[in-house]
Design brief:
This protein is mainly α. The chain has helices at residues 10-26, 46-66, 71-86, 89-103, 107-115, 121-142, 147-157, 160-168, 177-181, 186-198, 205-230, 235-253; strands at 2-3, 6-7.
Length: 256
């Protein structure tokens, strides 16, 4: 195959397809191209897309501060940017998980509740707490001299554990997003983890190790809870994992 008169290798095609797949899955941006199928084969690229989302959040937040807006408003605009870019995909997962895990009394009922598009009291509370915490932590990050690196790292690191949960836990239902996405290989998982780890290097060894430990504990705890509640993972579990991992990353990197 040739493009613009030049040969296109399979490696080039795979790289482009993986990036297209990751962007299509994790954002609502008008991405064009042929995505990798199943999408789990592109899981190594999820932290790269997350880093881009974090960069957009940082750009809006720092620009808002530069023009003299109140820090709280700047943090709110930055948070809204991330939600807009992703289409509230992960927020929806967190709310559905909270409703299902605590609103149902057995696996089948929990999965039914999680699939329901309506949001209940548990979902409202979980979503509200997530928004408040991320707003506060983004504001704390914007007050530092390395806000861009913190927010880029939060975007990248928070998306790596999703692949880890997919590798560890089976799909909880025979259909749905998680089943369609597939299961990443060990190599793909480790490449994604390595990429997310690279975004922590500017923070220094202490904050980086704190972040890795806190995010790993958060993802592991959520995985144990999901296995106990529904016997595996779903797209909602993965979305909730991203939200909790983002909070954990921001908390670790803004700790004093």
């Amino acid at each position: 195959m040739r493009r613009n008169g030049l040969p296109v290798t399979r490696c080039d095609m795979s790289l482009n397809s993986d990036l297209v797949s990751a962007a299509m899955l994790l954002t609502r941006l008008p991405v064009r191209g042929t995505p990798t199928a199943p999408a789990a084969r592109a899981a190594w690229a999820w932290p790269l897309i997350g880093a881009g989302i974090g960069l957009a959040i940082a750009a809006v937040g720092t620009a808002a501060l530069a023009v003299g807006l109140h820090p709280g408003l700047a943090a709110g605009l930055a948070l809204a940017t991330g939600i807009t870019v992703t289409g509230a995909l992960h927020e929806d997962g967190l709310a559905d998980l909270a409703d299902g895990f605590w609103g149902g009394f057995d696996k089948d009922r929990r999965l039914d509740i999680m699939r329901d598009s309506r949001i209940g009291s548990y979902g409202v509370i979980a979503l509200g707490l997530s928004l408040i915490l991320r707003w506060a932590l983004i504001g704390a990050a914007l007050e530092t001299d390395h806000a861009i690196w913190i927010l880029v790292a939060a975007g990248a690191v928070s998306r790596a554990p999703m692949a880890a949960l997919m590798r560890w836990l089976p799909p909880a239902r025979p259909d749905g997003l998680s089943k369609d996405v597939g299961r990443p290989s060990s190599m793909i998982l480790w490449v994604g983890l390595a990429i997310s780890g690279l975004t922590l290097l500017p923070q220094g060894p202490g904050p980086a190790l704190l972040t890795v430990g806190l995010v790993a504990a958060t993802a592991f705890g959520l995985g144990l809870l999901a296995r106990a509640k529904i016997g595996g993972q779903t797209g909602d579990v993965l979305g909730a994992c991203q939200q909790l991992a983002e909070i954990a990353t921001l908390a670790a990197l803004t700790a004093r």
